[in-house]
Structures are given as C-alpha cells and as structure tokens.
Amino acid sequence: MSRSGLHIGIVGAGPSGCYVADAIGRKLPGVRIDIFDRLPTPFGLVRGGVAPDHQGTKNIARQFERTLGKDGVRFLGNISIGRDISYEELKAAYDVLVITIGALEDRRLGIPGENLDAVYGSGQFVAWYNGIPDGRDLDPRLDGKTVAIIGNGNVALDIARLLGKTPDELAASDLCAHARAAFESARIEDIWLIGRRGPLEASFTTAELAEFGDLARAATLVDPVQLPQTLPDGLSEEQEKVAAKNLDVLRAYAARGEQNDRPLRIHFMFHAAPVAILGAGRAREVVLERTRVENGRAVPRGETFTIQADTVISAIGYRSTPFPGLPFDAARGIVANAQGRVEPGVYTSGWCKRGPQGVVPANRADSLAVAELILADLAGHDGVGKPGAALIDALLAGRGARAVDFAGWQRINAAEVAAGQGRPREKLARLEDLLAAAAG
Ligand SMILES: Cc1cc2nc3c(=O)[nH]c(=O)nc-3n(C[C@H](O)[C@H](O)[C@H](O)COP(=O)(O)OP(=O)(O)OC[C@H]3O[C@@H](n4cnc5c(N)ncnc54)[C@H](O)[C@@H]3O)c2cc1C
Questions:
Q1: In whole angstroms, what is the distance from residue 117 CA to residue 183 CA?
Q2: Does 323 contact ligand 1 (Cβ within 6 A)?
Q3: Ligand 1 centroid to 102 CA: how many Å?
Q4: Which residues lie across from 106 on neighbouring strands?
Q5: Which domain holds residue 140?
C-alpha cells in the first residue's frame, strides 16, 4: 500500500515535533509533513529554554535543522494554532495530527504576594533572557541586593548560575544583549536557591550542580547541617546514584565555608516552603516555613522565618497551554491522552504528553513510540489522503497570515550569526525583526 498520498500535521517544532517528523519520515517515506510553530523560529526550548551558556546542549539543533530541511517536510513558523488555524481545520486537513506544543506556562506558587511587582515565573524570566518575543519586554527588576529562586531543578540552577556569572564568563554565550545589559548593571549580593524538600529530593543533575564550583565571583554556600549523613532506604538504584553524587558535590561546597572575599553569595537552602511574599507594591521578603520530608513529601514543621528578597523567581514547573477544542487534562496541565493517543487520527508526544520533565533526548523515545502507534493505526489505510497543504495554504492566505518557511528561518539564522561578532549569535528578540530577517 502506498502512503504517499497522506498528509501529516505536527503542531510545535520543538525537539518532540522534530523527532516525530524524523521518525515518521523514515517509517512512511513519501508522506508530506507540515510542522507548525507559533514562533518564526524552530527548536522550541532548545532555543528558548536551554541556558545560553550551555552551547554544547544547543548543538542538537543541527540535527533538527536537517529534519526540517528534508524533502516532503515543510516548516510553517509564525503560525499559532488556535489563532491562525483552528484544531478542527487541522483535523480536516491532515490524515494524522501530532500535538507537540510543550509546556510553556508557569505553574503558580499559590501563595499571598505572588502578584507583587518583581515576582516572576521562570518561564517568563527565561523567555526574556533567551529572546523569545513574548518575553522581550519583561524588563525584570534586578535592582535589589537579594534574589530568591524557588525550586530545586535545573531551571532554578540555570537562573542562579547566569545571575552569578561575570560578563567574561558569559562572553561565549548567546545571552541576549538586553539581558546582558541588565545583568551587568545589577548589584545582586545574595541569591537564595530554595527547596521545599531536602537535597536528596532535588531534581538537579550533578553536572549542573557541579558548575557552581567554578564560578569566578560567586561563593556557593551550603549549610552542612542540611545535608544527610547517609542515604535513606528505599531509593531505586538510579535515584541512589544521583543522590550520592549530588551529595558529594554539596558536601564539597559546605566544606569550603564562607569564602568572604567574594562579592556575591549563592545559598542553597533546603527544607523551606514559601508561604508568602511580602512587600508594599513590590517584593521585599519571602516568608518560609521549615519542613521535614515524609514519604517523599514536604511536611510543615510549624516554624516560619523570613529572608530578604528584592526579586523572586519561581521555578516550580510548567503546564501546557491548550488551544480551543484540544482534549486537555486540566489537573495535570497536559494534553489528555492514552499512551500518546488523543482521539482518532490525533497523537501527542513530549512535554505536553507526559508533563515538563526530562532532557531533550528523553523526548526521542516518546516520539519514536508515537510514530510506531501511527504506523500501526494506518495499517489498513487505503493511502488516499486528506487535502493537507492545499487546504491549509488557502486558509492562511485568506487570513493574511504570514508563515515563515525553512528558507526564512535560515535567513534569520544567518542574520543572527552574523550579528554575533564573536558570540555564537545575537538573537533577534522582537517579532518584527524576526519577520523582517525571514523576508530577507
Ligand atoms: C529553562 C529550561 C532549560 C532547559 N535546559 C535543558 C538542558 O540544558 N538540556 C536538556 O537536555 N534539556 C533542557 N531542558 C528540557 C528541554 O528543553 C525539553 O526536554 C524539550 O524542549 C521538550 O521538548 P518539546 O518539543 O516537548 O517542547 P518544547 O521544546 O517546548 O517545544 C514546543 C513547541 O511548540 C510550540 N507551540 C506551542 N504552542 C503552540 C501553538 N498553539 N501553535 C503552534 N506552535 C505552538 C512552541 O513555540 C515550541 O516551539 C530545559 C527546559 C527548560 C524549560
């Protein structure tokens, strides 16, 4: 049976969408694949999330670039599903639809004071320093001496490390010019990295944790009292390995002591749950409650204390943002699905399928599995397809929507790299500049 008449639509050109396109292209040669993104640029959080000083991680984009450039694959950037094209229209156009929209919305702390000025979600803050157009004008307040970062994952570490680095340490990064200027004029003296649970429950990876040992001007402070002497029973082999390595790194920081010659201090603080943010108009303090861990959960101990925090950044996870009609599991903040199946002909993969966990390559297995499902479900298909691009292009033209194609992205890329002047690139962070560069 020939499948060359089939049209596949993928919503989201992040890692998951690219892995799905690659897998489907290999398993169903000859099908036409359209891959949409709301941004004029592809690669999702590889461009807009991964820290600008982690250029090695961003290299994976080259692999995705090859996928987008393949025959039969079209990139349609600057097309937001739910705004430019509806879910119903996509289902009418494509034989198979795969939703890979990631998880872009910050989870809320749900405590008083969260809406004060100078309180940000990490998604907003990262989008700002990474040049995502929606985040470009955040202009976060970094004018105080203290920053509290709430959360114990790699995103919290990224933010603390970037704020702690000197301009020299950021010279080889693609941190956007507006963020470099803001970091350079900041006079931060203390950064608190706050976890509700203990060091064993933190989801840092050891490599990210170890980077704090090399910072030029920042001291990394850990109170040895907060570190357990031994590992508890009941951890899986993998958990035990990670926890033991992380503890070694934290113990080494604790052993260094005060490092009083450093102008900036990064404090790891465990077993502290935020209960309120205080301030008149803007954040000034965070009230924390001491906790202990029981069965993996933080249990309050009824004792509160306060730290100064002129800026508060929460990094406690994300939710997907559904578009109208998309089956959605609101409690979990993910696309409603059963092992990747959403409804007949519609599938999902990546962070919007399983929640915001896992590094870039972790999405590959998910995407391969979805490609297998699609292949199985298409087994009896007669190969006569839906209209695909013919319908979509007519709809977009009628609405005056301006899609950025793969050649347009390559022009953006070339313009950014040329503007880098020794840096990997200088990102275009405003939509109008991206569209102008795409048009050449
Ligand atoms: C701050 C941060 C730092 C990270 N650092 C690392 C790291 O150093 N190393 C590592 O391996 N992993 C890192 N990760 C994890 C990694 O980024 C994810 O595993 C991966 O990006 C998830 O891929 P995805 O395709 O599911 O989602 P995403 O990468 O979020 O891609 C989703 C895409 O869908 C698009 N989209 C959303 N809604 C719509 C819509 N309505 N219409 C059209 N398009 C839409 C988005 O614009 C986006 O391009 C980091 C994550 C974050 C948040």
A1: 18
A2: yes
A3: 5
A4: 318
A5: 108-316
